[in-house]
Write a structure and sequence with these properties.
By secondary structure, the protein is mostly helical. It has one domain: P-loop containing nucleotide triphosphate hydrolases (Rossmann fold). 60% of the residues lie in helices and 5% in strands. It has eleven helices and two strands, in the order βαααβαααααααα. Helix 5 crosses helix 6 and helix 10 runs antiparallel to helix 11. Its EC number is 2.8.2.-. InterPro entries: P-loop_NTPase, Sulfotransferase_dom.
Length: 169
Amino acid sequence: ILLLIRNPKDVATSFYHFSNSMSPLPSYETWDDFFVAFMSKKMPWGCYFEYLSKWNKYADDENVMTITYEELKENPVLGVKNIAAFFGISLTEKELQTVVERSSFQSMKKNSQKTHGTFGNILFRKGGVSDWKNLFNEDHNEKMDKAFEEHVGGTKLGTKLKYEVYCKA
C-alpha cells in the first residue's frame, strides 16, 4: 500500500476550492465558514486528522510505504525511485524520467480533459505546496497546529508530516 499524505493546511485549502467547484458538495461563502466546518469534522469524507490517526497504526507495516506530497514535489525523481523500489519494480533511467514527467502535476493537468473529462478542470487546480498561506490567518494557523498536535503530533505519520512541512519549509 502506498499511503500519500499531505500537510493538513494544504488539504483544507485544496478542499475549500474543490468543494466550492463541485455542485454535489457543500459550498462555503467564506474561507472562515469552511474552516469552522473543517475543524469541527463536518466534511463529507470525515476528519483528516482522524484519517491520519487511523492510518498511523499501519505506518510500521512492511507492506505500507508512506510518502508525503511535499516530498514528491521537492524531489520527484527520488520519490519515484523509492516507490518503484518499494513495489519491486526496476526502471531504466529513461523509464524513470518518463514516469516523473508523466506524473508531474503540470503533465496531469495538461492531460486532465482526456483522463478525467470536464472533472479534470476541478480536480487539477494548482498542485503546489503552502497555498494555505494565502488563506490562513494567525488564528487559523494556531488552531490547525493545535489540532495536529492533539491528533497526530507524536505519531510516526505526524512526525513525518511535521518534518516535511515545518523543518523543510
